[in-house]
Amino acid sequence: MERYNYAYSLLIKVRLDEAEAAFQEFISAHGDDDLAGNAQYWLGETFYARNKLSEAARTFLTGIQRYPDSGKAPDTMLKLGITLGKLGQKEEACAAFLEMTKLFPNLRVQVKKRLQREMKSGGCG
Q: What pTM, to 2 d.p., does this model score?
């Protein structure tokens, strides 16, 4: 918990390289912790914020695969779709969004609105 909070504090301070290392360390040491899915999401965000989109996409995908029941899983899948879209992988992005609607039918309003916006702007059917 302390390591997670430390990593998150670095993220808030926009010390992204340090946050990346701290989240990776947390996941390595505490991969089975309840916060590991959150840490995986925020690790992906450190890459996304630095425009390292391929690394971000891989990290978000790993988060979905390793932590499908995490409270951050819907956010992780949404960000995976957004990242794929930015990488020019429209079909994959739309597939991620569609899968998200199936896996997470009861999304928080904020996440649902963002998903709908991203699907519309991405031209997903």
A: 0.94
